[in-house]
Specification:
The protein has 210 residues and is an alpha/beta fold. The protein has 5 helices and 11 strands. The chain has a 7-stranded mixed sheet.
Length: 210
Amino acid sequence: MTISTVQLGHHQYRVLQPARSPRFAGLYEGRLGAQFCLDTETAVMFAQAWGLAARSPRTIIHLPLRRAELPTDHAWGRPLDLVLLHHRLAFPPSRWKQVRSRLGAGRPHTVVLPGRAWPARPAADHLKAWHQEFRDHLRWDIAAETLVLTGSREAFELQADQVRALAEECPAHRAHDPTTHCCAEIGMGRIRRHPDRRRPYAELHAEYTR
């Protein structure tokens, strides 16, 4: 990974990026959310970024997906980059374009994640999301050709097992049967039962495509 520091007025932001852009990836904005096409390398990169976002309240995690080779058979909508960040940073997505324009090559940075970075949560934890008072959902915005996902550690961890499975289980499933549909369906925003007009419920459909 590489890390850069960007100063905007009185605010200083740390941005963590992969040392090398993914070779193959496609994240597209759609009518009901976003479609994310991954291969093995990008799935591992995505899982690492997810685990870091949950545990790094002062760091912006940026995956420059638009630099990758785009899929030809799953493309719809406009291509996007991906930013993941902890809600404690209180980062306005509208500021991302300015931050990105100031990013340099960055300096090498070693990241070590604990073995339980992608925990499986009991069904009861997921059922809490159906309650009106639940606040640990992922907020989403699209700014400067980037899907920005913001959440608490709880919000990221509730989806973490799906993200882990993309990297650890999908390659084996596809090797056994190349026609297998292997994906993660990651909810973004408040559920439809308790809608939020500003950030309506949407879904990030992350599909292992090769």
